[in-house]
Design a protein that fits this description.
homodimer; 136 residues; mainly alpha; Multidrug-efflux Transporter Regulator, Chain: A, Domain 2; 2 strands; DNA-binding; MerR family transcriptional regulator (chains A, B); DNA-bd_dom_put_sf (chains A, B); DNA-binding (chains A, B); MerR_fam (chains A, B)
Chain lengths: 136, 136
DNA sequence: CTAGAACCTAGAGTCGGGTCTAGATCAACA
DNA sequence: TGTTGATCTAGACCCGACTCTAGGTTCTAG
């Protein structure tokens, strides 16, 4: 079940450009094979890995960290602890990020609520305006 | 209580470069005043606004959106609904982002847990490795 | 046979958000 | 007085992660 780069782009949501770029950056576990005419051939497992990559990326893992991971995986058994450590590092990072966002969200929600009250009463212009006192 | 750019940098955590850059980008509500010798003078309210900016930035609000907001604030009363709408837009964005991160975190945590079990039993090399089946 | 789509490479360009440099001025201290 | 350090401007540069271009080949349908 061979897949062309266009097919993989369509199914992964990445552009063909991005797929070639990822390959140059060494983000594929298995070197991408070529047809005799030079065209790239992908398989289902590449698609699965890309789905994981996309997840990791969208949660803020830099390509360099993904490469670090895949480099270990490529070396085969023996470094599982290290791989796990990379994942845990990112896990902690994401957790911290969620806390940070939640924190900002709380502050914002409070501001918005207070301001809505003020607006409802016809008082206004005091919402996070550095030139004026803060109603919160 | 006048503050120099260096003082503001120290207290805001932004670099002097970034402060000048923010000014060029129109992110200050009140135009930054100058001493007769051309040096910038800041005040406590600038610092307060910068703290807010930093929050918004670190939660992913682009500078362009902050500028949009501050432009409205600068125009004075009458556009409070619009300002509120900007905040709500970002609020929704942050909420969605938190959900996305939480989602990825769940997947990762599951993977990590399963893998730790496998490792503990001496089975290995199956953690998100595109060349091998997945134990999850 | 031919048009158009899909593919190839190398390398340039983009965007956001800064960061840094050069060269000048100015302040403060020993 | 001289040196150190803070500031100024304009503009170049950086980074990550793509995105796009130019110029060329190859596949596919009619």
């Amino acid at each position: 079940m061979d897949l062309s780069i266009g097919e993989v782009a369509r199914r992964s949501g990445l552009s063909v450009h991005a797929l070639r770029f990822y390959e140059r950056e060494g983000l594929f576990a298995n070197p991408v094979r070529r047809l005799s005419n030079g065209r790239r051939v992908y398989h289902e497992e590449d698609l699965e890995w890309l789905a994981i990559c996309t997840r990791l990326r969208s949660s803020g893992m830099p390509l360099a960290m993904i490469r670090e991971y895949i480099d270990l995986a490529r070396q085969g058994p023996g470094n599982e602890r290290e791989r796990l450590e990379i994942l845990r590092r990112h896990q902690r990072h994401v957790e911290a990020r969620i806390r940070e966002l939640q924190d900002t969200l709380d502050v914002m929600s409070h501001k918005v609520r207070v301001y809505e009250d003020h607006l409802a009463r016809g008082e206004a212009d005091r919402l996070w305006n550095p030139s004026h006192p803060d109603p919160a």
